[in-house]
Amino acid sequence: MAFRKLDLTPALRPLLLPNETLLFVQDAVGLYEGRYKVPNYQNGSAYLTTHRICFINNEEPRKYSAALELKDVERFELYNGFLKSSAKITLFLRPSDPSLLNSASRSASRSPTYTPIQTPPRSSTPSQSFNINRQWICPICTFPNPFPSNFGPAIPIPPCLTCGVKPNRTVLDAVVNSPAPTPKLTAEPSSDSAQLQAVIDKSKNACPRCTFINDHALRNCEICGEVLSSDNIDESLASGGAVARNESPGPAYLGSIPLGEQIDSVKLSFRGGGEKSYMEKLKGAMVQRKWLLEQAPATPAVTSGAANLTLDSDPASIGGTPEVTERVVGIRGLERQSRNLRINNERTIAGAFEDLEALMSRAKEIIALAESFATQLSDNPSLANSDAKEALSNSANLLALRPTDFTVTKDQISSSSSTSTSLYHAELARSVADFLADDRRSILKKEGGAITLVDLWAIYNRARGIELISPSDLENAAKLFDKLQLPVRLRQFKSGLLVVQERNRTDEKIAKSVLAWLDSLAEAEAWDLETDQRWGKSILARDAAEKFGWSIAVATEELEMVEESGVLCREVGIEGVRWWKNPWMSD
Amino acid sequence: MADSALPGYYPEFYSFPPFFTRQPNAASWSSQLVQWRAFILAYCRAHKLWRLNLLDALDSPLFHNKAINRKLPLPVVREIITDLTATSNAEWTSPDKSAAYIFWRTPDDFATLLYTYIDDTGQKGTVLTLHELTDGDNTTDQEWYGMEQAMLVRCLNVLVKRGVAQVFSVGDDKGVKVW
Fold first, then answer.
1. What family, per the record (chain B) (predicted)?
2. Shortest CB distance from A585 goes to which of B16, B24, B27?
3. What's the domain count of chain B?
4. Claim to verify: residue B52 and residue B122 sit in the same structural domain
5. Which of A569, A580, A586 to mutate to test the interface with B (most CBs of B within 10 A)?
6. Which range of residues forms the domain containing residue A449?
7. ipTM of the complex
8. Beta-carbon count within 10 A of A398 CB
9. pLDDT per residue over A102-136, tens digit each?
10. What is the Cα–Cα distance from A465 to A459, expressed in whole angstroms?
């Protein structure tokens, strides 16, 4: 279950999932499985993202690449290397027992720094299922965190998912000592409605937090995302949920790594150094655990719901002592007053975060909206003014831009490696190639298949917005296009003008298309001048630029290139150079 | 269009505007050069032009197609004439390359023609003045009729080199004796 298939972009970089960000790249890395080297996976680049570790082989990237989900990683350690053995990072994987995996991916509550734990399957221990439904409220930011499933005195406490501050152990202890929320709701039959609810709960899949009655098959509440009662989960686990995730879904695995088997550790061998910075970034990624964000409930209602729940069960969870409801004065009164104040503060903070989350969820919508604007614009023929159209779609594109898709910064590249600059340029080249190949922008298409390096520099930097790159970096990166076998290539015209163009765009193709165009021009109109009939129609570089969408500089260079091949000949006149079909070569 | 009215020695390309631009492409240029060479020689032959003054010729129909308003630039003309001199079809009259003799036949060919003419008319062994050869009443239908004297001397020198003629001065004029 460890390695997954990895999709690559045209430029042979890992295809990032939504919300996934590239953190670091290190080349000259080999892959070990347990103690043994994995054949064909010995020289490649190890990409670290917020979600995965991606290995891409240098020679045959499409064939030999694999991804390891960080959430499958139990813990990791650094081996510094000794004599001939290079430095390694060992990643210990979670046992790939399907039921355990389920709990890991769903509750996703374990901290990576835990020692491997021999937890029996969750469903067999009541304490496990008990913990699943629990949450502890961060005293700093009031975020309801999932309770660590293996909580115990010897286990270090995981930091809060939102603010990253480790809570006091007493906070978690309080949660353990307090009655579980699920039984609490059902076991308080103080009124008729509660009794009714208990009945409903038994038959239906009611949410313990918001009481919404969910479908049987769901494990998380549809409304608030709360994990539903463990009984239901176990039922669904028994009845097919587990089957779906069972063992090996064949094609997803890679042939040469024995994936059906259980791999308990994987090593990344850093032959070219760079393990220190990689380790650092890995540590950061494991602490941040960005992959949880996808599973975290996104709607703002959750926060408020959670906050309310906190307040409801407040006396137990905060003080741990039953609260006396009679009116008190003196020191107790003051204490109570300050507690009320604190509760109020919590509410305010929760409200504030509610807004933030609302903003975040809105951001996605806005991006989607902007994208739809962009497509509408490009489809709309009524916008005759191409400049305005371009400006509009540009701004829409910018709005929809997710710079993390393609930005490579120097700090993502190991500085300790001696080849770090060339690695940086290689990564930059890949990212530029991705940028150019991006369908949403289709820059090359707009530019007629070729773009001058200067224009590219401007557009690329504009798209990046921040972390701008220098022209020389871009030039160096562009020079690597060929070596990296990217779908674009750098071409130098006779005059020294550098353009980036699609790889499959050859001189012959251009010459052919220009010739075909000239022929069609000659046929299209009946010319009253005899000369024009015999010699065809002549064009200016400007006409070609208009026809093929090139910039004038590119058009001139292309036409000169075609002339070089003998298809065209020139006529230097007062209005500039006119181009004619070359009659001398056709003889 | 005046094109159809042009005499036969005008090349087809005379109406092709790029013909009046020196092509940078080497292959195109070599074809273009061949056409220009042939055209210049044919034009001079038809017009009995022996000496081409470049500045004057630039405005003549030779280098200036008024119908399409295209003119061959002076440097290109010079380049073509220089190419002609390499095959003895032209000779600069002065080092500043402002004018050239145009031999639409090479001096060798003219020499052979002259020799045949003198032989056919039974004038071997007699002294002929150059004026007689170029402007005499008997040579009006000969190709070299009207040829400049300097050019004729150049041709006769070929015969001298072959050892069948001798050139000498007769008063102001020059004489030649072929045997």
1. Belongs to the VPS25 family.
2. B27
3. 2
4. no
5. A569
6. 401-502
7. 0.77
8. 14
9. 443 444 343 443 334 444 444 434 444 445 566 77
10. 10
